[in-house]
Structures are given as structure tokens and as C-alpha cells.
């Protein structure tokens, strides 16, 4: 994400996720460990936004987050890679979600899961930032309306939510998967061909340096979606050598992009210096964690509260950054609470708001919107 709310250029390397919230089940029950991993990824991103970067959060703290967290600001800086963990999860879940579904059903599922909470988050953040007591500038009414379409980034409009650039990556993945896999019918062979061809085409696009190819094929994000799809095939058959090969290739290519984007050891002005080993390690964590879930090693993590954690992840992800700035300023500067108290209290407040969005928005509206889209001619 860019340093300012109103930037319409491509975000800085990999800040904020994720975000896929389809119920994930194996035969006989839900993969609750995957719900827990979603929350872990969301918290990684929140740690990055609150204590692992500069930008507007500096205004919220009244000084650099590096000064607030002199030791933790460096590990917090790796939290931006929570986005890539989300993308791996998304590849896994979208592949599963599309299996056996018609194109209409797939479309209805995606729209109904993403849009209700997103629409409310856009309206909420726009309204809060328009308040006289809030120091952050809101976007224009026209751009706020464009944001409701999720097409603000390609249209060059100012963004209401800093994290929504990841949703633009998600919907491009959905479109590719829908047209090339769901429409002709999801099969193992078709998923393998799609994954291999996309990975190769993305590499070619990177070498060609053509903006249109970059927009469509997303070279820097494709390996993570592809790796997740490979791991879903592993979930279906852990002996599938092609599936394992796709997952490993996704990791090998993905870590290259992340090191290239995030390794800043030579930059004297960097907020925090990430090591190449640290970047590779965090990327590997995302792949290994999803792989462990895919093969059933984490089936023991079957606690009901993980389902709630998974449900909170998406609304938390949408609202935590910008509304977190408001909360941090109120708690730290206005009320004088120390940063060690403000940080977890802000996380708690954003999770509480996410629960309200889940209960009052997502739970009633998602099934209704899905039913309406499925019935539409």
C-alpha cells in the first residue's frame, strides 16, 4: 500500500490480505485450522500497519512507530507478508470452492462473500474520515462511489481503504479461474494445466515488461495463488506428485519476488531492514502451514472458536488500518495510554468492530445476496 490514503499508484511492496473467507471443509468436518491461519495472517498485517512501517500511522502515534517499538518494529516489518499467506489460502479455497460448481454459482458465492462487508467498510471509513475531529482527509464523493465497485485502482480513483489493492488482485484471480477452469468444468487435469500455464505465462509477462500482461497475469502474486491451488490438490490426494510440484514451484518463484521486493538492507532510509533469510522464512511458513492443513497434520486443531476467528478475519482486515489510526491517536495521544497498552487495545477494538460487522452485516446479507444472484436470469 502507498504511504498516503489518496494515492492511486501501485502500492509499495506488499503491505496489507486477504482475504478469502469461504467455509473450508474436509470430509466429515470443517478445516478449522485454516480459519485460525487466516486470523494469524490478518494479525501479521495489523502488526505491520501499526508498528512495522511509517506513513500515516506516524501521525497517529505522534512520532515514528520505530520509536514506539524500538525492538519489535523490525519483526513487525515482516508482517506485510501476511498478504502472501492470504493468497496461498485463497488459491486453496477458491480451487475447492469452484469444484463441481456452475459459473453462476461460483460468481454468486464470490460476490456475496466479498461485497456486503466491503460496502459497509467503505461507507464507514468515508464517514469517520469526514468527521471534523478526524485529521485524515477523506476522498471525494465521486471517488467514494467508485470505490463501491472495487474497480477504483484500475480506474485511477482515490482509494478509501488502503488494503483494497489486495482485493483487486483477488478478483483478477477469480476471473482467470472462473473463465479458464470453472466455465469448462473443474477437474484435476484442468487445474494442473491452468496452474502450470499461468506460472509460465506470468514469468514471460515479467520478462516482457508489458503493463497489460502484468495487470492480467499478476507475476508477483500468481505464484502464491498457484501454490495454494497445488496444495488443494494435495488435500485431495497427498500422493499427487504433480500437485506437490505445483506447490513447490509456487514457493520457489514466490520467495524470489518477495526478496526482490522487500529486501532493503542497502537502503539507509528504510524503516526497518529485512533480511533475505527472514523473508524466505516467512514465505515458507505460509506454504508449510497450508501444506500441514492439506495433509491433515493439523486436524487436531478443531476448536469451535477457530470458526469464529475465521469469520472475523475479513471484516477485521477491511477496517483495521484506517480506523486503527483513529483509535491509536485517541488512546495514545488523547488519553495518554502507553504504546504497550494502546497496541493490543486497538487490536481488540478492531476485532470487536469486525464481530459487529460479521453479525449485523455479513451473516444476514450474505445468504440473501447469494440467493438473489443464483436466482437471477
In short:
The chain has 377 residues and is mainly α. The protein has helices at residues 32-51, 56-61, 65-68, 73-77, 82-98, 103-129, 141-147, 152-155, 164-182, 188-208, 211-217, 222-236, 241-262, 276-294, 305-334, 339-375, and strands spanning 25-26, 29-30.
What is the strand and helix layout of this fold?
Elements: E1 25-26, E2 29-30, H1 32-51, H2 56-61, H3 65-68, H4 73-77, H5 82-98, H6 103-129, H7 141-147, H8 152-155, H9 164-182, H10 188-208, H11 211-217, H12 222-236, H13 241-262, H14 276-294, H15 305-334, H16 339-375
Antiparallel strand pairs: 1-2
Helix pairs in contact: 1-5, 1-15, 5-9, 5-12, 5-14, 6-9, 6-15, 6-16, 10-12, 10-13, 12-13, 12-14, 13-14, 15-16
Structure report:
With 377 residues, the chain is mainly α. It is built from 16 helices and two strands. It has a two-stranded antiparallel ribbon with strand order 1-2. The longest helix is centred in the C-terminal third of the chain and has 37 residues, at 339-375.
Shape: globular
Q: What is the succession of H and E elements?
A: EEHHHHHHHHHHHHHHHH
What are the segments in which pLDDT stays under 50 over at least 5 consecutive residues?
Answer: 1-28
Q: Which sheet architecture does the biggest sheet show?
A: 2 strands, antiparallel
- Could you give the distance between the termini? 38 Å
Mean pLDDT across residues: 91
Q: Order of strands across the widest beta sheet?
A: 1-2
Residues in β-strands, percent: under 5%
Class computed from helices, strands and strand pairing? mainly alpha
Estimate the helix proportion, in percent.
Answer: 55-70%
